[in-house]
Design a protein that fits this description.
188 residues, mainly beta, SH3 type barrels, OB fold (Dihydrolipoamide Acetyltransferase, E2P), 5-stranded antiparallel beta sheet
Length: 188
């Protein structure tokens, strides 16, 4: 059993007869009244996100997990297929378990948390940034750079990202996987 002081991003807990992953949390100590922890929980089974507040010292049932490195192989439309890099076994996951499936390209190495009780995959953690090539974007309009203007661009995985006007097709860009935002252009 853990308590609210053990809450951290990525912790998997059992709550309301389901398994949830904590995706955001905030410890709040108001001037008047007891402290509490405001959390955003994502259901591992359904993918739904709910807000919940735990009072300080509340006991929560954490789930023991192991983290393994897997390589993303392909997406067949219904499932995403991964291969364990240690023993080469393959697993397939539904899209709701993935945090940013649109930013995952074939060959990407991710960390998958596996429940030690029943060996079921719980969540997939992407690297902090991915480098993707711009597949399509409109050319920037000259003279339209007075502010931080952006334009939509489609990356090689099919996801759409807003990029600055100077980015062209064929450029490689670094994208934050947590927010899906453009970070910088990458030169080889």
């Amino acid at each position: 059993m853990a308590s609210t002081s053990d809450i951290r991003k990525g912790l998997c807990i059992r709550y309301n007869n389901d398994i949830y992953k904590i995706i955001e949390f905030l410890h709040v100590k108001p001037g008047k009244g007891p402290a509490f922890v405001r959390t955003k929980l994502k259901s591992i089974t359904t993918g739904k996100v709910l807000d919940n507040t735990f009072s300080a010292g509340h006991k929560i049932e954490d789930i023991r997990v192991e983290t393994h490195k897997f390589q993303f192989l392909y997406n067949d439309g219904e499932f995403y297929h991964f291969m364990n890099q240690e023993d080469y076994t393959q697993i397939r996951l539904v899209e709701s378990v993935l945090d940013a499936p649109g930013l995952m390209k074939e060959g990407e190495v991710v960390s998958i948390q596996i429940n030690t009780e029943d060996n079921m995959p719980l969540s997939v953690e992407m690297p902090a940034y991915v480098v993707l090539e711009i597949a399509h974007t409109e050319p920037g309009v000259k003279g339209n750079t007075a502010t931080n203007a952006t334009k939509p661009a489609t990356v090689e995985t099919g996801a759409e990202v807003n990029v600055p006007l100077f980015i062209n097709e064929g450029d490689k860009v670094k994208i934050d996987t947590e927010t899906g935002n453009y970070k910088e252009r990458v030169t080889d």
